[in-house]
Task: inverse folding
């Protein structure tokens, strides 16, 4: 009897260890899957948003660049003994609030100017920074990884809010790159001409590429065609409240007439003030003259840095 009890007790202990080992294995598998998903997401965001200004392609003429290639950024943040947490904190701090004091690439600021803040969720910024810490990639590797991310961009695990944000940020990056090029070549007055003639075609071309509808709207429009409707103004007012309280801005997704519509914030930065700041203080007289000539009903001035100038509206088919 005693012998049979010991055998049974031993069998139970062995079974428990087996279950625990199995649970540990499943937990490890789940962690691995989660990390792979984060890496795929990081590459999608980097390829659709960051590559526009930080393309890894070597053959791009330096005059055509609007930012340093992405593979040159990581080495400036790495230092002997730096931890993962410190690296992620440094990258995240700069992306959330780019300043010259925080910048590690001083030469890039002299050549290209200070990059604008990208309105990405904190979680997305974290996984981008972690990916950069873990992957010391060459230009060729970045290029290949980015192309694969673009091909597999519409991952089934992506939700509408995330998908719409990537479309909005990808379009913002293209407009921003071209606008910075216009200012760099001929100054702020030329930027007014650029926005008047090129902003809509570029936005439409990105919408066609993504197979969605994309527009920018504002409660203080420069172009009357960019005036926000009632629902859009309601969300813009929410963003004004959040930014006033120092809260994360976030986004919104609704289903309207069988379509999925995403709303994403447009924030001002130092570059914006050259055309959207205070006349005489931020806006040169020649630029003011151009604005009045092109946009007689202009309401889009008087902004400061990091204020809400409007929203991106992305309309997607329901899948």
Result:
């Amino acid at each position: 009897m005693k012998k049979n009890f010991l055998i049974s007790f031993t069998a139970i202990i062995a079974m428990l260890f087996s279950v625990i080992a199995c649970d540990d294995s499943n937990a490890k598998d789940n962690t691995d899957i989660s990390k792979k998903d984060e890496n795929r997401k990081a590459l999608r965001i980097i390829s659709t948003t960051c590559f526009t200004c930080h393309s890894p392609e070597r053959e791009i003429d330096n005059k055509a660049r609007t930012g340093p290639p992405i593979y040159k950024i990581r080495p400036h943040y790495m230092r002997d003994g730096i931890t993962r947490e410190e690296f992620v904190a440094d990258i995240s701090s700069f992306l959330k609030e780019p300043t010259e004091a925080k910048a590690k690439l001083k030469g890039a600021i002299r050549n290209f100017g200070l990059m604008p803040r990208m309105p990405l969720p904190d979680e997305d910024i974290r996984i981008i920074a972690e990916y950069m810490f873990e992957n010391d990639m060459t230009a060729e590797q970045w290029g290949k990884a980015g192309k694969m991310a673009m091909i597999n961009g519409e991952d089934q695990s992506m939700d509408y809010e995330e998908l719409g944000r990537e479309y909005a940020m990808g379009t913002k990056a293209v407009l921003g790159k071209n606008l910075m090029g216009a200012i760099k070549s001929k100054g702020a007055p030329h930027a007014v001409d650029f926005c008047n003639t090129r902003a809509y075609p570029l936005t439409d071309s990105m919408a066609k590429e993504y197979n969605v509808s994309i527009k920018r709207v504002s409660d203080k429009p420069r172009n009357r065609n960019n005036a926000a409707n009632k629902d859009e103004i309601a969300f813009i007012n929410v963003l004004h409240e959040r930014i006033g309280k120092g809260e994360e801005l976030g986004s919104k997704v609704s289903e309207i007439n069988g379509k999925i519509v995403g709303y994403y914030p447009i924030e001002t930065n130092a570059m914006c003030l050259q055309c959207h700041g205070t006349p005489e203080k931020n806006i040169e007289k020649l630029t003011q003259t151009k604005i009045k000539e092109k946009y007689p009903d202009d309401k889009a001035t008087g902004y400061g840095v990091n204020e809400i100038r409007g929203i991106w509206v992305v309309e997607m088919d329901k899948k």
Summary: The first strand starts at residue 213 and ends at 217. The two ends are 65 Å apart (CA to CA). Strands lie at 213-217, 252-256, 259-267, 308-317. The longest helix spans residues 2-54.
